[in-house]
# Entry
Amino acid sequence: MGVQIPKEISDARKPLYDVMRRAKESGKNVKFNGPTLCINGSQYKATMGQQ
# Structure
């Protein structure tokens, strides 16, 4: 059984899954807090040209 989250949050997370995977492979602590991705306790902010 999976966790059920609202569609809005699920849609907001979709572009962040690649970033999350790369961060995990680098050994960083990664988690989602609602629609926000947190890497090593800091909120991830996409820069221009990234997504």
In short: The first strand starts at residue 30 and ends at 33. The first helix runs from residue 7 to 13.
